[in-house]
Design brief:
The complex is a heterodimer. Chain A is α+β, with helices and mostly antiparallel strands. Chain A has two helices and five strands; from the N terminus they run E-H-E-E-H-E-E. Chain A has a single domain (about 1-70), classed as Alpha-Beta Plaits. Chain A has helices spanning about 20-25, 55-65, and strands at about 1-10, 30-40, 45-50, 70, 80. Chain B is globular, with a radius of gyration of 22 Å. The chains are: A alpha+beta, B alpha/beta.
Chain lengths: ~80, ~425
């Protein structure tokens, strides 16, 4: 089993959608939210995903196609 | 001896031992080094600092290293010059430039990597690593060579070959990753987590980032132990910006300088300006962007310290400017033509941003202003290739006279 820490950033159109709930239902991934901030116009969630690593990758690909931006919690590590 | 006492979560304030870790197990917030300031205040003084070497390591008591022998390539204590010509042009009587182009690998990254490499040895790592498209790669590779460490540098596969030279020459192993920026970024974060290496801006980031404080210390010392009224800083991840502020505040809390009322100003390239945009929109929530700018060293669309940079902006009552790529080029030319400093594109961002801040009234004529020039232009020559317009002449004096439009006068010494 693998664990991955990610930050999801939501566009306004997805603020009211249960994206993380659906992620846990569509894929064999256990999600565990550690921090979050949501406003009317945007939101982000820092969470841990636990599951088979290929399943986690499929889950990340799915949330990305939904319009969620998925980044490592470290942000951009490729520096100038 | 080190006065660093713990790593502390910047969000929930839980403390951790001084290990190569970078996030809080509880809330996944970033960790930062905290010090025993009471003990520090007992031993540090302006004189003790002034007795130190003419490098960033004169401030070693304020850095999180306990190892006696640091990895020192003489980074830091770079010139702070009064910019008479540029100041006159911008209407600033008291403008200074902090010139970090003259570091060992020509950028401020030598400061942070010098600390990271020292910590790598302290922790017993044999490899120093980073993901970079330029300045960081050079600094990591050079310091690894100096420290006797192996170096791994991850780069996007489509990076220009010229940029690889500045890293490969030091014997670093370059790993060119095929994929989108996001894929490269995700892989590097994962490798940083899994391999027993000192990945400078991942697992040893809390220590690495502290090296940037030395820019704040130096400026204060070079100004005669005082903080400037304004600091104009090029911003990518937000780390440098927040650490300059932390450095100034530390000096003040230790009684080495008076109260700090510096306005910290963010300058970003418009194509990569998530922090300036959030500031303009009055929100503390940084919205990641796809970075698109010629200022490659600032092309961070999802800044790790974006929120903390916004906090610093707010706390210091600073302003933010986002400048176009054309302004960046104009800023580079202006700096070179007025002060003789050939800065990289990030320096163009600083100068163009400074110009905007003056025009907006955020900086007034007599106020003591320091603009930070963080890297050399020799690394980004392609951005200003248009300046090359030589007079092409056949090898005759007449042709030369015709080209410059005046005949030769009598020979005269100046």
């Amino acid at each position: 089993m693998a664990k991955k820490r990610m930050k999801f950033t939501f566009p306004p159109k997805l603020i009211t959608e249960p994206v993380i709930y659906n992620l846990g239902h569509r894929f064999k991934i256990v999600t565990n939210i550690r921090r979050a901030e949501v406003s009317e116009s945007r939101g982000w969630v820092v969470l841990e995903m636990e599951g088979d690593s290929a399943e986690i990758e499929r889950g990340i690909a799915w949330v990305t196609t939904m319009g969620v931006r998925a980044d490592p919690i470290e942000g951009d590590v490729v520096a100038g | 001896m080190s006065y660093a006492k713990a790593l502390q979560c910047r969000e929930c304030h839980r403390e951790y031992p001084l290990n190569p870790i970078h996030f809080c197990e509880f809330c996944f917030g970033p960790l930062e080094v905290v010090y025993d300031y009471a003990a520090l205040a007992q031993s540090i003084s302006r004189q003790s600092i002034q007795r130190g070497p003419l490098s960033m390591w004169r401030y070693r008591d304020l850095l999180p290293v306990s190892r006696e022998e640091v990895v020192d390539m003489n980074a830091g204590f770079t010139p702070l010059i009064k910019a008479h010509n540029l100041g006159k042009l911008l209407g600033l009587e008291n403008l200074y430039l902090k010139n970090d182009c003259v570091n060992p690998t020509y950028s401020f990254k030598d400061r942070v990597v010098s600390v990271a490499a020292t910590k790598a040895l302290e922790f017993g790592f044999d490899t120093l690593a980073c993901a970079s498209t330029g300045n960081l790669a050079g600094a990591v590779s050079a310091h690894a060579a100096r420290a006797g460490l192996r170096a791994y540098v991850f780069i996007p596969a489509d990076l220009e070959r010229g940029k690889m030279v500045g890293s490969a020459i030091y014997g670093a192993t370059l790993v060119a990753v095929k994929g989108t920026y996001d894929e490269v970024n995700r892989l590097c974060a994962e490798i940083g987590d899994k391999y027993p290496w000192a990945f400078v801006n991942i697992n040893v980031r809390p220590y690495y980032a502290e090296g940037s404080k030395t820019l704040g210390y130096e400026v204060a010392e070079q100004l005669g132990w005082r903080a400037p009224d304004h600091a104009v800083v090029p911003v990518a991840s937000g780390s440098l910006f927040t650490k300059i502020w932390k450095g100034l505040k530390e000096l003040s809390s230790l009684g080495l300088i008076g109260p700090v009322s510096t306005h910290m100003h963010v300058t970003q390239a418009a194509g990569s300006a998530p922090i300036a945009t959030a500031h303009a929109e009055g929100t503390m929530m940084v919205k990641p962007v796809r970075a698109q700018t010629i200022a490659k060293s600032l092309a961070i669309g999802n800044p790790a310290d974006g929120y903390y940079a916004l906090k610093t902006l707010k706390e210091s009552r600073g302003a933010a400017a986002a400048v176009s790529d054309d302004e960046v080029v104009a800023g580079m030319k202006l700096l070179a033509e007025t002060e003789g400093i050939f800065a990289e594109t990030a320096g163009g961002v600083t100068i163009a941003g400074l110009k905007r801040l003056v025009a907006a009234g955020a900086i007034k004529s007599g106020e003591l202003t320091v603009a930070f020039i963080t890297g050399s232009g020799l690394k980004t020559q392609e951005a200003v290739e248009s300046v090359v317009n030589p007079l092409v002449i056949p090898p005759t004096l007449a042709a030369f006279q015709e080209a410059i439009g005046k005949p030769a006068g009598p020979a005269r010494a100046r």
